[in-house]
């Protein structure tokens, strides 16, 4: 018969180690207890140092009240505390600690050292503890006010627990999580977490901060910018709630939940489940929010003595309180779920030589020619497809206001100046413009004009003849261009090595054709090491050398096949321009052309207008968002340069009185007298866009000076820019840059003022350039009023049609979001799983 086992009382060391294993389960639990002790000691700065995830070393230093010298003997004994005296005190406990087990448990499973100093002590004292007992006498030492606790070799005497722990990296991650949560809840306490041997801390928060700021520091701006603040107070159940929760714009693969009840970091499965169910209405499946909730309940309604690690608590009326919290959170979320914000990465037009481009110039196998065209590669363009305007597409008012503010520096608009375009139209009787010449006249302007030598004549003509053979359509690139070999290259009698090098020859030919088509910066730099302009060389060379130089330039231009800019002149005769400054401006535009972007715009299909400053286009299988204002301003500048001295003329069919203008802005347009430059300048100075202040002087004197300056340059403005001014100081005509397009009259006064103030009149090159820029700037303001069509029709059928026909987009347009790829058909097929 088996005898029952004898009951024995466990040894005190065994009991203490078992208890220590319940309270201190891992380094993060020990740190949590020590942080709470520091907060109880009114610390405002807590510094933590770890080594090997806290297993080798875990040190915490604070600037709290410290520990009195006479209490050092029993500070690590079990059930010793300064927070509690009787059991009834638990009903009103407001501190974190109350059992007096934390330091005792730590001393039983590690080597514990405490250095502390109070405000009344002259020096700090150091003590070491083993199994909750003081090891040796106290040692005086230097130290700051507060307490430093050093834990070394945690679980050195509990081998099974040490082996069961995760890797040091995982333990450090759990320590970081604890520090992060306490840092968010205690913004008036500075936290620093540092890994031993590393100069940069893992966590650092200021000791004077806010919860929102600490969230931004610790969790990043994506969380902080989506936070909603929740406040709730209930007198029936005597609780308060302060919360920070993310709105429906934010979602994560894992729920991040910070719960503090009476300032204690705890867990509640009931509240966690409530949050998960609540957000299923607002977030996609299997995505979760970020939530911080601080719940303050009457201490007598909370039972904190539920779990050895104190990470769980129980409180009265739990179901009712959770339901009230759920209703408050649901109300907050429902009021902020009307809109969604999506942050996307900008896609710019690609410019690199890709595999698709290489396939166009490299040999293709016969079997590849019959490959099936997948739906994701098909370009769908149908003239009968409805436009975007069909769906009444509009822009939100707030977004429109923001765009208007962004465009103010470059697109100034005045609602008080000339808001009807009926006063500008082409005089049908004067469409036939006589042939003009560039002979010198007796005007003051001719004193600064370049006298172009005769060698330019032959040089430019050679350049034109060379370009005739160069400007082929880029689609004409074929295998014949690549495989241009002599018959001897394939002679069977040649050496066998020649046949082996055939592949290399093909590759070299392909590379050359690619460089021809896309340009090669390195090769250009080698050909022109000095980086000098070909026109500068022409000015210092002989006529024969000039012809040779331009011929070489033509050969270099052949490597970049840029099509000739299409003239928009409505004149019957085109006069040849030989001014060096104008030729240089044209050359600069051609050299700065981004060929890939030009190819995109040349194949565009207009989708629809978003507003006056932006529109959507399709090119190939991609959808692009275009900045209309920047595109047409550059377009008009190029027209000014390439059609220099060949513009049509907008004549005012009825003379205009400026006094009458002010009256007729709001009624019918009836005009009696010419437009006065003086009055236009005065109107511009009265507008906010002019930026006039008393420091500049009286307005009337400024307006008179502007009129006198423009009259002085009247012959040049008429000769080259079709801006006609009469001797009385009246504006009679403006240039026609695009047929069927007239600029906004509201900006005419500011344009006249800027011609007088923003143009560099001292240098020919700078003068021509600035006049072209100011005119392009003025013409880029699309008028909202038109005789027969609205601004949307003008944008689609006049402006973007002109961009498609001929436009040199500058290289910076590929990087400043002027043309921005927002969708791609192959990528959409990937998203919707249809490929």
Tally the beta strands: 24
Strand order of the largest sheet: 5-4-3-6-2-1-7-8
Q: Report helical residue fraction.
A: 25-40%
Average of the residue pLDDT scores: 75
Note the overall shape: elongated
As a whole number of angstroms, the C-alpha radius of gyration is: 40 Å
Structural class designation: alpha+beta
The separation of the N and C termini measures 78 Å
Continuous helix count: 30
Uncertain segments are 393-399, 407-496, 521-558, 653-672
- Largest sheet data: 8 strands, mixed
Description:
- This protein is α+β, with helices and mostly antiparallel strands and 835 residues long.
- The strands form 5 sheets. The protein has an 8-stranded mixed beta sheet with strand order 5-4-3-6-2-1-7-8, with helices on one face.
- Residues 393-399, 407-496, 521-558 and 653-672 have low confidence and may be disordered.
- Strand 7 and strand 8 form a beta hairpin.
Jot down its keywords.
alpha+beta, 835 residues, five-stranded mixed sheet, 30 helices
Write the layout of secondary structure elements.
Elements: H1 12-23, H2 27-40, E1 45-51, E2 57-62, H3 102-109, E3 111-117, E4 124-130, E5 133-141, E6 146-152, H4 159-164, H5 168-185, E7 190-195, E8 203-204, H6 211-219, H7 221-224, E9 227-234, E10 239-246, E11 256-261, E12 264-265, H8 269-279, E13 290-297, E14 302-303, E15 314-315, H9 318-334, H10 355-361, H11 366-369, H12 397-407, E16 425-426, H13 455-470, H14 479-482, H15 496-500, H16 502-518, H17 521-527, H18 534-539, H19 543-558, H20 580-591, H21 595-602, E17 604-611, E18 614-619, E19 622-627, H22 628-642, E20 648-651, H23 658-664, E21 675-676, H24 677-686, H25 699-712, H26 714-721, E22 724-725, E23 730-736, H27 748-757, H28 764-779, H29 791-805, E24 819-824, H30 825-831
Parallel strand pairs: 1-7, 11-13
Antiparallel strand pairs: 1-2, 2-6, 3-4, 3-6, 4-5, 7-8, 9-10, 10-13, 11-12, 14-15, 16-20, 17-18, 18-19, 19-24, 20-23, 21-23, 22-23
């Amino acid at each position: 018969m088996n005898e029952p086992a004898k009951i024995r009382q466990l040894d005190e060391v065994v009991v203490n180690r078992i208890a220590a294993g319940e309270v201190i389960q891992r380094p993060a639990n020990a740190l949590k207890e020590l942080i709470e002790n520091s907060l109880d000691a009114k610390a405002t700065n807590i510094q933590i140092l770890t080594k090997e995830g806290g297993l080798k070393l875990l040190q915490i230093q604070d600037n709290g009240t410290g520990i009195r010298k006479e209490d050092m003997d029993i500070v690590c004994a079990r059930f010793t505390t300064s927070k509690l005296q009787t059991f009834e005190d638990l009903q009103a406990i407001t501190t974190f600690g109350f059992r007096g087990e934390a330091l005792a448990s730590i001393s039983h499973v590690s080597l514990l050292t405490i250095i502390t100093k109070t405000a009344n002590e002259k020096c700090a004292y150091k003590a070491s503890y083993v199994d909750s007992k003081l090891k040796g006498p106290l040692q005086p030492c230097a130290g700051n006010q507060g307490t430093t606790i050093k834990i070394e070799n945690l679980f050195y005497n509990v081998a099974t627990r040490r082996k069961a722990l995760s890797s040091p990296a995982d333990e450090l991650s759990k320590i970081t999580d604890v520090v992060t949560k306490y840092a968010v809840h205690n913004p008036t306490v500075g936290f620093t977490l540092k890994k031993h041997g590393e100069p940069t801390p893992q966590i650092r928060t200021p000791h004077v901060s806010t919860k929102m700021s600490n969230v931004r520091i610790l969790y990043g701006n994506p969380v902080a910018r989506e936070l909603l603040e929740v406040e709730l107070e209930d007198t029936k159940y005597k609780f308060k709630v302060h919360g920070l929760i993310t709105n429906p714009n934010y979602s994560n693969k894992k729920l991040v939940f910070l719960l503090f009840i009476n300032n204690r970091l705890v867990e509640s499965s009931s509240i966690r489940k409530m949050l998960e169910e609540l957000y299923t209405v607002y977030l996609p499946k299997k995505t979760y929010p970020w939530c911080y909730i601080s719940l303050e309940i009457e201490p007598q309604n909370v039972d904190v003595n539920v779990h050895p690690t104190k990470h769980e608590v129980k409180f009265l009326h739990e179901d009712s309180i959770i339901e009230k919290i759920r209703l408050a959170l649901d109300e907050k979320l429902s009021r902020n779920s009307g809109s969604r914000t999506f942050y996307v990465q900008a896609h710019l037009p690609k410019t690199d030589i890709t595999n698709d481009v290489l396939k166009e110039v490299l040999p293709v196998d016969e079997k590849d020619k019959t490959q099936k065209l997948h739906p994701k590669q098909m370009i769908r363009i149908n003239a009968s497809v409805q436009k975007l305007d069909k769906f009444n597409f509009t822009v939100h008012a707030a977004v429109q206001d923001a765009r208007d503010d962004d465009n103010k520096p470059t697109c100034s608009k005045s609602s008080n100046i000339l808001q009807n375009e009926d006063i500008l139209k082409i005089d049908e009787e004067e469409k036939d413009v006589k042939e003009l010449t560039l002979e010198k006249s007796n005007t003051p302007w001719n004193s600064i004009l370049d006298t172009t030598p005769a060698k330019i004549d032959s040089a430019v003509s050679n350049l034109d003849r060379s370009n005739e053979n160069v400007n082929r359509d880029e689609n004409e690139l074929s295998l014949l261009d690549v495989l241009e070999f002599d018959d001897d290259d394939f002679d069977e009698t040649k050496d066998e090595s020649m046949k082996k090098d055939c592949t290399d020859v093909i590759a070299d030919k392909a590379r050359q054709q690619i460089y021809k088509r896309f340009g090669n910066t390195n090769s250009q730099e080698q050909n022109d090491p000095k980086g000098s302009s070909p026109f500068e060389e022409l000015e210092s060379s002989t006529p024969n050398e000039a012809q040779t130089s331009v011929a070489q330039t033509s050969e270099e231009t052949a490597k970049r096949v840029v099509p000739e800019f299409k003239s928009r002149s409505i004149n019957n005769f085109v006069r040849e321009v030989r001014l060096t400054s104008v030729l240089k401006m044209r050359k600069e535009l051609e050299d700065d052309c981004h060929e890939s972007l030009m190819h995109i715009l040349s194949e565009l299909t207009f989708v629809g207008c978003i507003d006056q400053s932006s529109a959507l286009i399709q090119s190939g299988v991609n959808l692009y968002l275009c900045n209309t204002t920047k595109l047409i301003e550059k377009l008009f500048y190029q027209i000014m340069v390439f059609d220099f001295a060949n513009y049509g003329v907008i004549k005012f069919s009825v003379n205009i009185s400026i006094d009458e203008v002010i009256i007729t802005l709001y009624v019918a347009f009836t005009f009696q007298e010419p437009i006065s430059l003086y009055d236009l300048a005065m109107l511009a100075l009265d507008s906010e866009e002019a930026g006039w202040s008393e420091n500049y002087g009286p307005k009337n004197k400024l307006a008179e000076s502007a009129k006198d300056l423009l009259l002085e340059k009247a012959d040049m403005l008429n000769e080259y820019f079709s801006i006609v001014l009469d001797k009385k100081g009246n504006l009679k005509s403006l240039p026609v840059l695009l047929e069927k397009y007239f600029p906004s009259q509201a900006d005419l006064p500011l344009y006249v003022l800027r011609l007088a103030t923003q143009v560099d009149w001292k240098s020919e090159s700078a003068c021509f350039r600035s006049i072209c820029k100011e005119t392009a700037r003025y013409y880029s303001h699309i008028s909202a009023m038109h005789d027969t069509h609205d601004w949307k029709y003008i944008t689609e059928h006049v402006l973007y049609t002109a961009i498609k026909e001929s436009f040199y987009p500058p290289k910076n347009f590929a990087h400043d979001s002027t043309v921005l790829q927002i969708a791609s058909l192959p990528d959409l097929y990937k998203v919707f799983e249809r490929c």
